[in-house]
Each structure stands twice: as structure tokens, then as C-alpha cells.
Automatic annotation (TrEMBL):
Name of the molecule in the record: Peroxidase
Site feature Transition state stabilizer, where: R68
Taxonomic lineage of the native organism: Eukaryota, Fungi, Dikarya, Basidiomycota, Agaricomycotina
GO terms, molecular function: heme binding; metal ion binding; peroxidase activity
Annotated S-S bridges: C28-C41, C40-C305, C59-C141, C269-C334
Signal peptide residues on this chain, from the entry's feature table: 1-19
Gene source species: Gymnopilus dilepis
Length: 361
């Protein structure tokens, strides 16, 4: 009897117990959406606009540009020189920051994203907008992690000081020191360079805009870590550009900085560890890019709107060498473990086409 009573009261209490586990979601004023934090409700309309009108061609030029902007805004902070980090200053103070050599090409990105940033400036600050667009850009790239997003960054106060954005012709030592000064370990730096899996260059060799860094620039896969470890044999356009070294596949470009990070003893084993490990890349890139989004910000004052960021499509392939290339083309750099032996993709040597440009339409 007593047992039966205890059982029935447990059953009655069950919904309340479950309620503690499944946190309630606030229904938004639009009557359609719901969010964990009510302050995030205003972002659904922005998300819809960006997904339908900016990232409608998937993981292409606009998405790549939005991700690059995340970095170029956030890294504008230094313990000595100052700067506000992920504050939107690259947009608001573009008249200053676009004069920095390392921001070459960001003018194109702002031409594409700027109208959206302006349109929604009554809803979000420039700093929040840039990080939101970056998180959403990843949601259209198969294989990317579902990254966290928080809002509440104040408006930027001033332009970033110059010389804080790494250049592709910087040494490994200089790159690691720059990131180290704002709290990023070598492991986190290499993880962040997973971004170059969905990327290309317009301005390193201006004769060939949209030249991808790996053979799959519309997929967030580990190919960048594979391709960059292969022996370079050609320039996709003209040789002799600052920050560029030879690449192994026609139509792709290799940055000198990626090349050196894959070979320097400080980072080569880390680089290699991502080549065959999609899961590790997703986890560590996701954490590091979120950390980037908090630079210069008081994290405790920000509101978690991560539930606005959709899950990206899954990665369905598996790591492999480009057609006609194999383990014998690897420039082994890590001294303590061998580069993984991967299958070679079938077919004749690739000629990777350029990434169609957002402003071509
Ligand atoms: C050592 C640090 C880095 C260096 C030296 C570097 C350098 C470059 C260069 C030179 C370009 C080509 C720009 C052009 O000519 O159009 C580029 C593109 C890009 N970078 Fe990086 N980068 C670094 C780190 C990062 C990080 C941390 C991210 C993001 C988290 C990132 C995301 C991108 C993306 C997405 C593009 C492609 C942009 C597009 O296709 O329009 N990069 N990077
Ligand atoms: C670029 O800066 C100018 C002022 O220098 C400003 O009017 C414009 O809105 C800025 N662009 C963006 C995208 O914020």
C-alpha cells in the first residue's frame, strides 16, 4: 500500500522532474519560434535573411568571406597595443582597418555583408552581427561543427591598431607569438586553420581570384591538412607572389604560412594529427573559433543564442590523397609519428576550378 502510494506520487511528479532536465524555451513574440533565452528571439529574422539571401549558394564565396571576417575582426586586440577584439570595428572603422595590408580583400567581404549588417543594425551590434554571420556561414558547410554563438557585444569604440592580423609571409614563430599574446596555444592555432578548408585567395595572386587552398573548398573536411603536407610542384598562376609557395594540385594555391606550420617542429605533429581525424578537427576548431568570438569581450555579460545556429550537413566522404598522388608525395615532417597512409582518389590529375565569386553575378 505504502509502496503503491509512493509509486503513484512518483508518476505524478514525473513531468516536473523531466521539466528540470529539459529546460523550458521561451516562445517568441512571433508565435512561431522559441529560444532558450528570450533576447535571442529578434535574431530569427536575421538568420532567415542571411540563409535565404546571403548564403543561398551554400558553402561558397559569401560563406568563406563571412568566416574570414570573424577572424580579421576578432584578432584586432593586443595586450600592449590595445584594440577591442571581436567588436565589429573592422566594419564600423573600415576606413582605417581596410588600409592594413593584411586586410586586403576584406573590402569585397564588406561589400557583400555590409548591406545586411546595416539592415539589421537596429537588432544587433556590428560585433554580434559579424560573429553571428560567421557561425551561420559554417552551418552551410558540410562537415563543419555546429558552433556556439553569444550576443551582447557593445558597439566598437575605435579602430584596431595596425599590424595585429597575421600575414601569409610571417614566420611560424611570429604567427604563434601573435596568437599566443591573446591566449591561443599552437594546438588552437592549427585547429583554427581548418578554416582554410573552406577558403581561397583573391589577392595573393590577383591574376587568379577565387583560387582554393584545397581540392574541396565547399566542404569543411580535413583535406587542407592532407594537401598542404604534399610536395609542392606548381604555381596555379604566376609564381613569385609574396606569401605563396608551390602547391601539389593544379588550380589550388598554398599559403607559405600553412606550408610552414605543417613543417615546423612546433606544429608539424599537430598539423598531421588533423589529417585523418574529422571529429578532432570539428571539436577543436569549434572550441577555438568560439574562443575567437569572445576576444576583448566580457563573456559573463553575453547571452547564449547558440540554439539559433543550425547543425551543418554531415561530412560523408573519407580522407584521401588527390588523384595520382600518394603517401610517397608526403613531405613527412612530424618526427614521432608517420603521416597516415590514405587511399588515392581514382581518376586523372585534378584541375580544381576557381571558386565562383559573390560579386560575379
Ligand atoms: C596564420 C594565420 C592566417 C593567415 C596568415 C591567413 C591568411 C589568409 C590569406 C592570405 C587568405 C587569402 C586572402 C585573399 O587573397 O583573398 C586567407 C583566406 C581565408 N582565411 Fe585565412 N589566414 C589565417 C588564419 C585564418 C583563420 C584563423 C581563419 C578563420 C577562423 C581564416 C579564414 C579564412 C577564410 C575563410 C579565407 C577565405 C576567404 C575567401 O575565400 O573569400 N584564416 N587567409
Ligand atoms: C564603412 O565605414 C563608413 C565610414 O567610414 C561607414 O559609413 C560604412 O557604413 C562602413 N561600412 C560598414 C559595412 O560598416
Amino acid at each position: 500500500m505504502a509502496f503503491k502510494k509512493a509509486l503513484s506520487s512518483l508518476i505524478i511528479a514525473l513531468p516536473a522532474v523531466l521539466g528540470l532536465v529539459v529546460s523550458p524555451r521561451a516562445t517568441c513574440p512571433d508565435g512561431v519560434n522559441s529560444a532558450k533565452n528570450a533576447q535571442c528571439c529578434s535574431l530569427f529574422q536575421v538568420r532567415e535573411d542571411l540563409l535565404e539571401n546571403l548564403f543561398d549558394d551554400g558553402c561558397g564565396d559569401a560563406a568563406h568571406g563571412a568566416l574570414r571576417l570573424v577572424f580579421h575582426d576578432a584578432i584586432g586586440i593586443d595586450p600592449q597595443a590595445g584594440g577591442g577584439g571581436a567588436d565589429g570595428s573592422i566594419a564600423t572603422f573600415n576606413a582605417t582597418e581596410l588600409t592594413f595590408h593584411a586586410n586586403t580583400g576584406i573590402d569585397d567581404v564588406l561589400d557583400t555583408l555590409g548591406p545586411f549588417l546595416q539592415k539589421w543594425s537596429h537588432v544587433m551590434t556590428p560585433g554580434d552581427f559579424i560573429q553571428f554571420a560567421g557561425a551561420l556561414s559554417l552551418s552551410v558547410c558540410a562537415g563543419a561543427p555546429q558552433v556556439k554563438f553569444v550576443m551582447g557585444r557593445p558597439a566598437p569604440k575605435a579602430a584596431s591598431p595596425p599590424d595585429l592580423v597575421p600575414e601569409p609571409f610571417d614566420s611560424v614563430q611570429k604567427i604563434l607569438a601573435r596568437f599566443g599574446s591573446v591566449g591561443f596555444s599552437p594546438e588552437e592555432v592549427v585547429a583554427l586553420l581548418s578554416s582554410h578548408s573552406v577558403a581561397g585567395a583573391d589577392d595573393v595572386d590577383p591574376s587568379i581570384p577565387g583560387t582554393p587552398f584545397d581540392i574541396t573548398p565547399d566542404v569543411f573536411d580535413t583535406q587542407i591538412f592532407i594537401d598542404v603536407q604534399l610536395r609542392g610542384t606548381l604555381f596555379p598562376g604566376t609564381g613569385g607572389n609574396q606569401g605563396e609557395v608551390q602547391s601539389p594540385v593544379r588550380g589550388t594555391m598554398r599559403l607559405q604560412s600553412d606550408h610552414l606550420l605543417a613543417r615546423d617542429s612546433a606544429t608539424n605533429c599537430i598539423w598531421q594529427s588533423f589529417a585523418n581525424n574529422q571529429k578532432k578537427m570539428q571539436t577543436e576548431f569549434g572550441a577555438a573559433v568560439f574562443k575567437l568570438s569572445l576576444l576583448g569581450q566580457n563573456a559573463a555579460a553575453l547571452t547564449d543564442c547558440s540554439d539559433l545556429i543550425p547543425a551543418p550537413p554531415p561530412f560523408t566522404g573519407s580522407p584521401s590523397f588527390p588523384p595520382s598522388l600518394s603517401h610517397t608525395d608526403v613531405e613527412q615532417a612530424c618526427a614521432t609519428a608517420a603521416f597516415p597512409n590514405l587511399p588515392t582518389q581514382p581518376g586523372p590529375p585534378l584541375v580544381v576550378p576557381p571558386i565562383p565569386q559573390a560579386d560575379d553575378s
